[in-house]
Batch of 2 targets.
Target 1
Amino acid sequence: MSFTLSQLIPAIPEVFVTIMIAVTILVSLFLGEKHRNATFYLTQATLLICTLLTVNIFHHQTQIAFHNSFIVDHMACILKVFVYAMTFLSLLYAQPYLRGTELGAGEFYILTLFVVLGMMVLISAYSFITLFIGLELFSLPLYAMIAMQRTAVTAEAAMKYFVLGSSASAFLLFGMSMVYGATGALTIPDIQNAVLLHSPTIAILGLIFILAAVAFKLGAAPFHMWIPDVYEGAPLPVTLILASATKIAAFVLAIRLLVNALPLLTNQWQHMLIFVAILSMLIGNLVAIVQTNIRRMLAYSSIAQMGYMLLGLVSGIGVGFGAAMFYIIVYAIMSLGAFGVLMLISRTGFEVHSINDLRGLNRRNPWLAFMMLLVMFSMAGIPPSAGFFAKIAVLVALVHVHLVWLAALALIFAIIGAYYYLCVVKVMYFEEPEETSLIEINGLGKQLGISVNCLMVLVLGILPTGLFQLCQAAFVGG
Amino acid sequence: MLLQQVVFYFFAISLIFSASMVIFSRNPVTSALFLVYSFFNSAILWMMLNAEFLSLVLIFVYVGAVMTLFLFVVMMLNIDTETLRKGFIKHAVLAVGVVIVVLVLMMMAIWTGNLAGLPDIQAPANYSNTHALGNELYTHYVYAFELSAMLLLVAIISAISLSHHKPKRKTQNISSQVDAKPKDRVHLINMSSEKKV
């Protein structure tokens, strides 16, 4: 029972981000309006250095610190690196837009760093307390970031997200307290090894609440109502982060709570997840078809994609969890690419909303159109893209556990889903633009960023082995 | 033992009284003051449970800081009590229903649960629960504790960035004052003179 500084070593990235938050706050306070970019560069530098620090930890064995409330395993390291990368690219795309609006002040970057810290805490959490604090630490700044642009639309989105998000947190807390009541333990290893004290009824009741909160955070049906409104109403820079990095964090929430903490109730959560997954794929894919607003369409597509990802968890075996992890990473990359293209087309005062805004993009900027094409093909699951491989991996895991009917159902939904993704491609390539002026991307960094981002989709599709094996190793015998 | 029971019942009844006065008093300031009084009563009950640290923190933090702030807010905002009371009877039915359900559930828990079987923990005389809490918070839960501090920092920054509007400082703009022409300041309007009937 003592606390020594050496305990901090596995948490060096977290400590570093915390220090950098303080530094960034002071710098943005004293530098004033003229040097607004300083906060941006500081934030990006923080993310880059964090990547180095985390990669450095990766080679070690799994480490547990702070009295079983903190863990660094392979999954945590891999996903943290992707969270940094997603945030880095989001800010890179959003920076010119941010500079022109009131969002451009230092607070946006500082709050982004808080979001990153919250996700890191969540990803490394090994007890219910840290899990919950991490979740809140990344949700709270997001609510504020959505509301920062004071318009009626963003205020509505922020309120919806805030009210629903806090009730989801309350659900989670309620469920956690029930599990605590049933097992008498708060840390994940203790819960894992606990013999259920009373009848498992209380734990199962707790599981239901926990699952509802997890589904909400992932944006899976029937807890998906907020996704379209928030994606549409939030300023694009925030949507970028919401649609990519937070999905990774929500995935970890699911893994830690269901797979790590409650393996005793695998049967129960498998059944619930089958329902959630089917409903997500159904609602997501069918409703996305009729959307004319591209952000709403992508929002519904995200609901469907979460359904596919959950199929990996449904399998209940390590191979499936690995496949789900691969899926969530690939999805985050695709989603970031899609919203990134929208972000780069948008200017201050003009945000892309309608699918028709993409009309004839091929004439206006062929490279961006091609990037969007790659992303759309990947989301639809057309080979040789990464989306195809991710879907196959998840379905193979399902077949392993003899859930062939579910795999077949998922395939049917995937074919339905391909329609609206291809519609976007059709609009970009075969329709005449209303405005023929060329779209130029200023700055080599952004061009490079979006190209790497979208080409990753192709590269991971052709050479998935490296990342896929890393994901598998995190669960199977890792 | 008897003295303890007398003290307990006195402050428990006083707590129930002040808590109901929070709801029933017509003036929001009186409600807030009764809330302060009920905090004080519960602090004494906690003290009787040997939770002296929490009991004092309740007074310092809630009475000393939170409720003072609360009183300021209540006094500064001109709350229209009429609209607040509008649907009182309509909502009262639902409220009473909820109270009955909660009450029945609690009774059931108390009667069926084996509360008498709980061990009576006697702490040694020199036991300090401030010390014990500090020990737990700064060793076992140090990570969560520090992160909660970050959570508060987030709240501060978001609250400021949401409520702080772009600088509209009321400072003198000398060049615009010098540039001002008489016609910017005074508008002469032609009005038709009043007609006598």
Target 2
Amino acid sequence: MDFTLTQILHQLWIARMPIVQGLGVTMAAAALAIVVGSVLGVGVGLALTYGTRTLRWLTRAYTDFIRGTPVLVLVLASYYILGAAGVQLSPFQAGVLALAVFCSSHVGEIVRGALQAIPIGQIEAAKAIGLTFPQTFRYVLLPLAIRQVLPTWVNTAAEMVKASTLLSIIGVGDLLLASQEVISRTFMSLPFYFFAGFLYFTVNFAIEHFGRYVERKTQIPS
Amino acid sequence: MASNILEIQNLHKRFGAVEVLKGIDCVMKQGDVVCVIGSSGSGKTTMLRCINMLEDFSDGTIRIDDQDIGYEIRNGVRRRKSEKEIARQRALTGMAFQQFNLFPHMTATENIMLGLVKVKNMHRDQAHAIAEKWLDRVGLLERRDYYPGQLSGGQQQRVAIARAIAMSPKLMLFDEVTSALDPELVNEVLLVIKDLAREGMTMLLVTHEMRFAFEVSSRVIFMNQGRIGEEGDPREMFLNPKTERLAEFLKSSTFN
Amino acid sequence: MDYVLNFSVVWRSFDHLLGGLGLSLLLALGSILIGIVIGLVVSFALVSTSGIARRLAGLYVTVTRNTPLLVLVLFVYFALPDLGIRLGDIESFVATLAIYSGGYLAEVFRAGLLSVPKGLSEAGQAIGLKKMQIRLSIMMPIMFRNVLPALGSTVISLFKDTSLAAAIAVPELTFQARKINVESFRVVETWIVASLLYVCTCAVLAMIFRRVERHLAIPR
């Protein structure tokens, strides 16, 4: 099928609202998944680093299970199981939950690595001046760990944006689904899949550069 | 009646099956400057770290300023105190480490202020003033806004000492604070410590610097395989060692 | 909520799931082998002295790393026919995953190439070896050992990505699981089993890579 550029741009203009809305849903899903997943992930990382043996074992089992499972399986499982369990979650919520769980396992690993990389002398110095462990964590470990995890965490954030496309498979009106709806109407597969890809690429590219900017800004002078 | 700053009685520590401290006794009064010497593995660092509970100890008592450190006897059972209580007791001592352990994400001033604000609950302005006073004392006031990564080893160690002293501890603990320094940076740190000694600070130092120990300490403890081998006046001990082990040790260490 | 776990339904269809897993592995194998070739070529381009080669290779890597795989899969399967390129579902997916993995593998190999001490390729030049010979006999064997850990985790990641083939109705493991789920309503059991199959396969792959790493380790 041959479409002229004018026709394509015309259809793009007609579909601008659904596409923008779709992009909004994508960003919202990714943002929610990143935030919830990161908070959970910090907990996971803490459990893996400072937990009792039982807690560490349980958390390991959790992360190994989640990381060994494809994200799509997590999304589908969340969608179908929560639906059958009578839990009133929309596809969006079920999908974001799955993404957040996925995110938490990755963030947990990152946080664990960063915490274990902090020299033990830091904790001893904090103890020596009388700080309790919560204080040590808040004023010494956390600031140091955050600087360490930043690049990898930004990577994970970009992964979440990419993973959000899987929500289209369970019917969430994200950018990909919106594009597919336009395509089913206009048959302009090539232009609109390309356009969707280009938008995702731009978002991730921006995230990558923002991450590098933040990394530069938070560097400790030496 | 002046109480002792530090009283250690029958201190034992086991690492699994190995007993590293086999019954240490030590008494320090206000203003005492005691250097602990000995070969590695003699337990000197372990003893120091038991005093501020960086290491647990298996038996015996440690008292600082009449308080039992780390453990208490309740109903005849020896029990470890709560983390909160132990943290509170740690503020009675100040420690300077071999690896300095300054917080890399804080300036020199902030490193010193952290304990003052968060442990002693001082107002930030007051803490700032104290921090600057101690930075001045160790000769680093113009570096107050520098980060540890921007300071030399000797400068970092001086800041670390200031950080510990600013907390007004009853007892200062120094764990081989010059061992990780380039030779030309050692002197600036020793000068600071000598200065503090002259002012009457009660200090317990684990050190390899024999000349320093000779010049500064009121007492020297020689540790050997988890026990105190010899103890006494530095001049006596270094020039007339009573035990053979100490004589060997002195021979093998640079004393000049 | 009344839900009694009943694995028998899933057990009866287990051979379908295993068949799906087999297809997943085949998809992964095909894509990764092609991807490795692409990745190697691109990685050499990334470290080459030619500015054009570096930029083109860099563009390729940036695009494949920042575009969602699902969009690429749908693009190749549904949009390329507009250009006359019509591929069957399996071929289309393997081609897509190969191109996608090429970008990631190129980065893995580039790190590996940079980890080879520069002096070695110079030594090769000094004894008169041609560029291609240097690459094959000197740089690649060393690079290969160095990249094994990163290569292993990338391969495992790509294996999990084969689940996206379900989106274009390729009957691999995820597709089969979804089919069983929809037909039997045994939601919990189906997905637990499917998930365990993936987890175990990944664990086996990880073990294989560790074995290879140990086997190839140069005695010190």
